[in-house]
Backbone:
């Protein structure tokens, strides 16, 4: 759960040798701390495992920017030589500002605006992943008026019920994303795309959902995409060169969980892809993936300061300690939105006190403002104590809001014993900036 440079000794959490107390006093709380070394290692690991599994047919790792992106992290991505997946004009702007080469950018979205499409075409992005019949026309028109041939992939829905929260499963039939393979919509999209001289169909894409631990659904999706490659081959007498199998690899949030291993899932995928291609007499296409959470999730932790504690008596006469921290659902929406489970540790000192039933809550004006619903936590936690929550890097800061006019926390990168702000805390001036 914790990034590689985090240690907890005698109750004191340190990252790359800097104590939680020192971090809190320099950067204030709440704040996200990003272990740079851990992030880079994870990104490179997925990249090398992709190469190991697919050899010369390894495509690209496209880091999913939606998990977390800022300009500095975009610079790291460029430096690491991997690609990026963006799904809005905003994410595209950050990626370009960070110096990521346009050819290494893939553009997603189920409802890209014409402006966003035109920006992507003008920037010269490596691929636009088309999600609807309307979009085929829009991307073709944008490319034609720019005098370019735009490389595109088609996002397909392989009809899989992935075992994850319903809000983040994306590959069953009843979803807004992609073209269904089973209904024939995918084939229709292929035929429509082929009609446009300004579009170069590079391949097919699927993303089956997020926080998935089984390898099988990834393998089934790949198999279904390859069946369609075979149909394409027999109808058009040529082979599409690329398959992008998306992201969605699960990570550990709790002590008893363990993340999906790149070597396992990519090894299985490689076998399925090779067997399936052999069955259909196809060459193995280039295989790309889009991990987000598994790269940045465990690389970050959040530090909070306790403001109040309150013991309440429940109906069955048992008690619960409510520990209120200085953030909440504005920096971690995942508990409220998906019933996600997190853990936390006291980060500034050792406690030998008994652990009691505790709920860690934020400072927002609603009961659902919960960071951790049920945790056994030391009974002697007091105002001023620091709490650290691991694995908050993915969909934490990126889904942060200004609810109750709270300013969003900073992201502080830590490397080689040095900590520096890479995304600063919002100020009251920032919050007032938009008011007319
Ligand atoms: N590729 C596509 C096309 C995606 O839609 C996503 C995530 C990814 C890649 C990266 O998935 P990852 O490897 O990070 O699981 N806010 C939710 C997650 C939404 C995921 C949306 N798409 C959460 O906090 O769990």
Residues:
């Amino acid at each position: 759960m914790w990034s590689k440079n985090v240690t907890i000794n005698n109750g004191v959490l340190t990252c790359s040798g800097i104590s939680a107390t020192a971090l809190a006093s320099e950067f204030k709380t709440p704040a996200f701390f990003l272990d740079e070394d851990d992030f880079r290692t994870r990104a490179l690991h997925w990249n090398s495992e992709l190469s190991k599994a697919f050899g010369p047919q390894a495509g690209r790792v496209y880091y999913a920017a939606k998990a977390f992106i800022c300009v500095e992290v975009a610079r790291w991505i460029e430096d690491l030589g991997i690609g990026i997946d963006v799904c809005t004009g905003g994410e595209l702007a950050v990626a370009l500002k960070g110096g990521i080469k346009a050819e290494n950018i893939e553009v997603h979205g189920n409802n890209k605006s014409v402006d966003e499409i035109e920006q992507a075409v003008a920037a010269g992005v490596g691929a636009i992943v088309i999600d609807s019949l309307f979009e085929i026309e829009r991307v073709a028109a944008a490319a034609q008026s720019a005098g370019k041939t735009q490389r595109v992939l088609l996002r397909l829905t392989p009809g899989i019920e992935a075992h994850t929260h319903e809000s983040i499963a994306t590959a069953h039939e009843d979803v807004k994303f992609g073209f269904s393979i089973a209904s024939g919509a995918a084939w229709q999209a292929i035929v429509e795309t082929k009609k446009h001289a300004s579009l170069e169909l590079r391949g097919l894409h699927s993303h089956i959902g997020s926080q998935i631990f089984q390898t099988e659904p990834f393998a089934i999706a790949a198999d279904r995409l390859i069946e369609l490659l075979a149909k394409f081959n027999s109808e058009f007498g040529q082979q599409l060169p690329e398959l992008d199998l998306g992201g969605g690899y699960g990570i550990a949030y709790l002590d008893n969980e363990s993340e999906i291993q790149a070597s396992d899932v990519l090894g299985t995928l490689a076998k399925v892809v090779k067997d399936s291609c052999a069955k259909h007499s196809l060459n193995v296409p280039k295989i790309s993936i889009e991990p987000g959470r598994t790269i940045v999730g465990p690389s970050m932790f959040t530090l909070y300061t306790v403001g109040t504690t309150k013991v309440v008596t429940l109906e069955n006469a048992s008690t619960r300690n409510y520990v209120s921290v200085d953030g909440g659902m504005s920096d971690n929406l995942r508990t409220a939105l998906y019933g996600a489970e997190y853990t936390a540790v006291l980060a500034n000192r050792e406690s030998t006190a008994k652990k009691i039933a505790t709920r860690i809550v934020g400072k927002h004006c609603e009961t659902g403002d919960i960071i951790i619903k049920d945790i056994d936590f030391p009974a002697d936690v007091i105002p001023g104590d620091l709490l650290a929550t691991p694995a908050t890097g993915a969909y934490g800061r990126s889904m942060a809001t200004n609810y109750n006019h709270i300013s969003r926390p900073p992201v502080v990168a830590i490397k080689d014993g040095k900590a520096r702000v890479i995304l600063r805390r919002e100020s009251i001036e920032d919050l007032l900036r938009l008011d007319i």
User: Anything to note?
Assistant: Residues 216-236 form the longest helix (21 residues). The mean pLDDT is 97. Residues 64, 66-67, 85, 108, 168, 207, 210-211, 246-249, 290-294, 334, 338, 394-395, 399 surround LLP (CB under 6 Å). The two ends are 44 Å apart (CA to CA).
